[in-house]
Amino acid sequence: MTLAACYRALAALMQYPEDRDAMLVNLDRATEHLLRCNLEPIASSFVDFLGRSSLEEIQEDFVATFDFNPGRAPYLGHHLYRDHGKRSSYLIKLKQEFARYGFVPTGCELPDHLSVLAHFLAHLAETNQDSPRRSLLEQAVLPGLKKLTENQDRSRPHWLPLFEAAHHVMTQDCREDPPCSTRSSS
């Protein structure tokens, strides 16, 4: 599995749940990449939660975790810039980067939603834009992801391992020559 495929799998897992079976497939894809790259796999609490829950239960937990408390929502601009003016500038800069590299997001999420950013990172990986991808990670994604992870409700732990796994992949990707980024799946 390529780095781009891993980013796509993580992006799909961070979106509103529409298909439990697709989530399980994406979980397997992301886990395969993590293990192949000697990174910590997604914690069993998330794996167990998906395995034992119906789609409706997953959706209910997703909404309860992210939609009722903006401090836990996966909008990185909110975590980086509580000020609406600064967040607006961040959103505009992200949209400019999307346009610069020919990325057109699908769906209706704002550009700072972690799933949209993971899709953009996948696009940059597919088009061999290593330097811009690493710069985006270091300046615009990882600082917000760190704050997002710190703001997660420890009493609703299901989604936290997903963010931690994304952090592991993104941190490794920032290295000059990550050992797993260009290998294709076997």
Mind explaining what this structure looks like?
This protein has 186 residues and is mainly alpha-helical. The chain has a single domain (3-173), classed as Orthogonal Bundle (TorD-like), CATH 1.10.3480. The chain contains nine helices and no strands. Helix 1 runs antiparallel to helix 2 and helix 1 runs antiparallel to helix 7 (114-126). It is globular. The model is unreliable at 181-186 (pLDDT under 50).
List the helices and strands and how they pair.
Elements lengths: L2 H11 L6 H17 L7 H9 L2 H13 L8 H5 L3 H17 L13 H13 L3 H21 L9 H14 L13
Characteristics of this structure?
single chain; 186 residues; mainly alpha; TorD-like; globular
